[in-house]
Design brief:
By secondary structure, this protein is mainly alpha-helical. Helix content is about 40%, strand content about 5%. It has 5 helices and 2 strands. The chain has a two-stranded antiparallel ribbon. The two termini are about 25 Å apart. The model has no long low-confidence stretch (mean pLDDT about 85).
Length: about 110
């Protein structure tokens, strides 16, 4: 199986503000791939459980970038999805589950 790895340079077009589901490696300009998508999926799980918009209380994009880059995460309420959400949000991309593992979890 081929593993897709991509890189993002400072010259690549990025939105003015970060997407609310961007993985730490994307925010820092490092290589990214499927584990980055798993991080984003974790944000989606959090949204499903909380019925809230991620980072809605943050005052700037820079605050979100700093928060995520430092390994901090939004509070995950107790739910059947809590454990998987936390795993998807691992700081290190190699520590995140694969989508096959996520499917097996469900």
């Amino acid at each position: 199986a081929t593993t897709a790895i991509y890189t993002l340079s400072l010259h690549d077009a990025l939105p003015i503000s970060p997407q609310i589901d961007m993985a730490p490696e994307l925010l820092s300009g490092s290589s990214y791939g499927k584990p980055s998508d798993v991080f984003s999926y974790g944000v989606l799980l959090w949204e499903l459980v909380t019925q809230k918009t991620p980072y809605e209380d943050f005052t700037s994009s820079f605050a979100i970038i700093k928060f995520v880059s430092e390994g901090q995460r939004l509070e995950i309420p107790e739910s059947p999805l809590a454990e998987m959400t936390g795993k998807c949000w691992s700081q290190g991309s190699s520590s995140r589950p694969t989508f096959s593992q996520i499917v097996s979890f469900f």
